[in-house]
Amino acid sequence: MQAIDGHTRLCGLIGNPIGHTISPVIHNTLAQREGRNLVYVPFHVEEGRLRKAIEGAFALDIHGLNVTVPYKSEVIGCLAEMDGMAGKIGAVNTLVRTANGYKGYNTDATGLYRAMRSEGICIEGEEILILGAGGAARAAAFLCVSKGAARIYIMNRTKEKAQKVAEEINHVFGKECAVPLRLEDYGKLQAGKKYLAIQATSVGLYPDADAAVIEDGAFYERIHTGFDLIYRPSCTRFMKLVRNAGGKACHGLKMLLYQGVEAYELWNDVSVSEEDARMVYDKMKEAMGIEE
Ligand code: NAP
User: Which residues contact 56 (CB under 8 A, 6 or more apart)?
Assistant: First the structure.
């Protein structure tokens, strides 16, 4: 580890809870690899203290921050500026220091894109099922349409939320490309067609690892590739159901990697090589006890 001295820059993660984060592995490994005098630490921020935390971070000359649950939307009100894509998504996970305050970005979306590309998954021209209508699903939905998906289906337990996301997307992109669906209405999808599916609900997340948002095998027959944003556990029930039906399935650890890489690049105005990203990924897997 780089020696901490009077020139050390500080970056960090704010959220609640924060204890299980592996983001420090990403940033401290990259800083060490580059010989950069930067340290990344997690900050637990209690409910009601977000604005004070952001103002305090700015006053302390903190170079950049990641933001996680439950503050990705609330933090928008504490920013000096917003990146366009983050504004459309309505969620921010990365703050970059500017002269007047922090500027908000959404590297969950760009990180997901890099993760999918690295898995050989193509978005352009695809019809895509997005399970969920929360923050991560919104990022996935905006990403898919901006990268040329032919159509996306927003499938959510609460139909009104799916409807709202679909309406916003259709409005922003000026075309009817997003369709809301109840989870149980997958029978309405085109018969015989195979879809790319992005699992963006919190169902199946550790410790409730035996759950999937849809259990019916007939649904999984319709999926050629399933990308689960969850990475704990590294093989979710959703992934098992996709594979049992003959599809390809990936977990979300690469998305976590690349959202961090993108944040690091924004903070330090550098481009991280694929070789370095792979090295960081190996460290993340080691930290999580994942072998494959
Ligand atoms: P969120 O905003 O809280 O949204 C949760 C979503 O899950 C909602 O659509 C909710 O449906 C649905 N859901 C929750 N419990 C359900 C249940 N029992 N049955 C059916 N649907 C249910 O959370 P988020 O921030 O979008 O995160 C979603 C997942 O993505 C989490 O597991 C998170 O760990 C993961 N994630 C991964 C990365 C990464 O880097 N890999 C980044 C961000 C997020 P309702 O609207 O009906 O409540």
Answer: none
Residue by residue, pLDDT tens for the chain (292 residues) are 668 999 999 999 999 999 999 999 999 999 999 999 999 999 999 999 999 999 999 999 999 999 999 999 999 999 999 999 999 999 999 999 999 999 999 999 999 999 999 999 999 999 999 999 999 999 999 999 999 999 999 999 999 999 999 999 999 999 999 999 999 999 999 989 999 999 999 999 999 999 999 999 999 999 999 999 999 999 999 999 999 999 999 999 999 999 999 999 999 999 999 999 999 999 999 999 987 7
Distance 150 CA to ligand 1 centre (A): 24
126 lines ligand 1 (CB under 6 A): no
- Is residue 178 a contact partner of residue 152, using CB atoms and an 8 Å limit? yes
Burial of 57 (0-12, 13-18, 19+ CB in 10 A): buried
Question: How many of the other CB atoms lie within 10 Å of CB of 180?
Answer: 21
Choose the residue to mutate in 202, 205, 259 for probing ligand 1, maximizing ligand atoms within 8 Å of C-beta: 202
Residue whose Cα lies nearest atom 41 of ligand 1: it is: 252
pTM score, whole prediction:
0.96
Determine which residue's CA is closest to atom 1 belonging to ligand 1: 134
